[in-house]
Fold this sequence. Notes:
alpha+beta
Amino acid sequence: MVTTKLRHYPFLLTSFRLAHRSRISLGVAASVFCAVAWASGESVEPGTYEIIARTAMPHLEENLRYATTRERRCLRGHELSSVFPILHHPSLEGCKLDDESRRGNTIRYLLVCASPQVATGVARLDARPGRVAGILQIKMGGKNMTFAQRIEAVRQGECDPTP
Length: 163
């Protein structure tokens, strides 16, 4: 055993014991931190994010097919279902992402509308430290019109404190 060989060198034995205790303490602290992060259900680090959204509408003419928007806003894990800007458009009033399912860093939603004739769709988000990427695919009811919105959100810093 290592401590038997170190018995003849007391200063090394003390250093070895301290280093061993530090590694155990560090390991316990890391385990507790990971357990707390997992239990909280936060898949994204809260903060101000720059969100770039690209909407693709394949049924339109080439020059109208794509639209890109940028915004900065405070985002927390429980607000991920509202990260797609298109959900705030009047044509999708009464619609929201619901029925969340998580597997690892991937979060999936169904688009649920008060009236199913409005639209149907699915969303997928991949959350990584400081970054969220995803796609929302929508089929508008009764019009046979489909489109998708892709988002890339990158953390820029802390949220501004509320006044």
